[in-house]
Design goal:
This protein is an alpha/beta fold. Helices cover 36% and strands 13% of the residues. Strands 3-2-1-4-5-7-6 form a 7-stranded mixed β-sheet, sandwiched between helices.
């Protein structure tokens, strides 16, 4: 445990995590699907929490339109693959972290065979509805713990997000679509981060987003992962 105590990532968090919890995080393997407004903040929080192994999955390059909400988006990173930018950022936080990048568009044909067999957790921050459905089904099939981000666009309130079962959600069109498909696949429970705020309809094709709303969703996704891997509970 000496290595844990001397690791600067755990200097301030160790009293909350316990040494065993910190060790669990250091030994954990987490995959993050989607590195946009939600996933980039989830990756950041997990890196600063001491996760020792990352699998980063995203097909996209950083675009100028990402500047208002994505942690990976800077003037100097425009045009670069998001997986490479986030990998570099994690390494700047924790040089010892093992990071594998996969610049792919995930779908049913992709499967999960490219990931470690002993993966501990999946963060689902995918935008594509069908890809999200495919990932959730595959994670349940392989019995890999997973938390999925629900809709964070067209919303104002970052304080509205909560962790719940998808079958408890409402006012969320994405969750509604997922519930229907999960029922068809006999999935009766699935953990999500969800806000009950009714989305604003702007009349535009592009989904509107404020900087801090998807960020809050991503941070709560990361919190759920840390709580489960470190095995502590919050008494409110």
């Amino acid at each position: 445990m000496k290595e844990i105590k001397e690791n600067p990532l755990f200097t301030r968090s160790l009293p909350l995590l316990t040494e065993q919890g910190a060790l669990n995080l250091q030994n954990a393997k987490v995959a993050i699907f989607g590195l946009g407004g939600v996933g980039s903040y989830a990756a950041e929080a997990l890196a600063r929490s001491g996760i020792g192994h990352f699998e980063l999955i995203d097909y996209d390059l950083v675009e100028r339109s990402n500047l208002n909400r994505q942690l990976c988006a800077l003037q100097q990173t425009i045009g670069l693959p998001k997986v490479d930018v986030v990998k570099q950022r994690i390494h700047d936080i924790n040089p010892q972290a093992k990071i594998n990048t996969h610049q792919i568009f995930y779908n049913a044909e992709t499967g999960l065979e490219f990931l470690p067999k002993d993966l501990d957790y999946i963060v689902d921050a995918i935008d594509s509805v069908q890809s999200k459905i495919d990932l959730i089904i595959m994670a349940h099939r392989h019995q890999i713990p997973i938390v999925s981000a629900m809709g964070a666009g067209n919303k104002y309130d970052p304080a509205g997000f909560m962790v719940c079962d998808i079958f408890q959600t409402y006012n969320d069109r994405l969750a509604k679509k997922l519930r229907s498909e999960l029922k068809k696949n006999n999935i009766t429970q699935h953990t999500v981060v969800f806000s009950p705020e009714k989305p604003v309809t702007s009349g535009r094709n592009a989904i509107a987003s404020l900087a801090y709303v998807p960020a809050a969703c991503g941070l709560i996704c990361a919190a759920r992962v840390v709580e489960d891997i470190a095995q502590f509970q919050i008494d409110l």
